[in-house]
Design brief:
This protein has a single domain, classed as Lipocalin. The chain has 2 helices and 9 strands. It has helices spanning 2-20, 36-40; strands spanning 43-50, 56-58, 65-69, 73-78, 83-91, 97-104, 107-118, 122-126, 132-137. It has an 8-stranded antiparallel beta barrel. The radius of gyration is 19 Å and the shape is globular.
Length: 138
C-alpha cells in the first residue's frame, strides 16, 4: 500500500512539473483549460506600463480600454484624448502575439504586440519597442 501511495505522489509531482513548463507566455499561465481566444476576447483596462528600460508606471483609470471582440473585431478608447477607434484583430501564426489593424483619423495602421501574459483576468502586451502594458479584465 505504501508503494502505491509513493508512486501516486511521484506521478502527481511529475505532472505538476510538466504542466508548469508548458506555458507559451513569459508570465503565464503555465497551464489552462480555456482556449487562448476565450481568454483574449474581453474588454481590458490598462493598469500598468513597464518601459523597455524597466521604469514601472501605474495607469490611473480614465475610461481607456481595449476590447477583443469575438469574430475578429477590435475596439479601443483612449479616455485621455477622448478618442475611440475600431478595427480587426488576429493571432499571429504561433499565437504568441496579436495583430491589430485599425484606422485613426483616416490612416490605416497595423501593429503586432507580443503577448507576455494571457490569463482569464489579466493581459500583458509588449510592443515593438519592448515597452509592456498590463491590463485587467473589467
Amino acid at each position: 500500500m505504501k508503494n502505491v501511495s509513493i508512486i501516486l505522489i511521484l506521478a502527481v509531482l511529475l505532472s505538476g512539473i510538466t504542466f508548469s513548463s508548458c506555458g507559451k507566455y513569459e508570465e503565464g499561465p503555465g497551464f489552462t483549460l480555456l482556449p487562448k481566444k476565450s481568454r483574449l476576447q474581453q474588454k481590458w483596462r490598462p493598469i500598468e506600463s513597464v518601459s523597455s528600460s524597466g521604469v514601472v508606471t501605474t495607469i490611473d483609470s480614465d475610461g481607456s480600454y481595449i476590447e477583443f471582440v469575438k469574430g475578429g473585431d477590435f475596439k479601443a478608447y483612449d479616455g485621455t484624448f477622448d478618442v475611440g477607434f475600431s478595427g480587426t484583430w488576429e493571432f499571429n501564426d504561433d499565437k504568441t502575439g496579436v495583430k491589430t489593424t485599425f484606422e485613426v483619423f483616416g490612416t490605416s495602421t497595423t501593429s503586432e504586440s507580443k503577448i507576455v501574459k494571457l490569463k482569464i483576468n489579466s493581459l500583458g502586451l509588449e510592443d515593438e519597442d519592448g515597452d509592456k502594458t498590463y491590463y485587467e479584465y473589467f
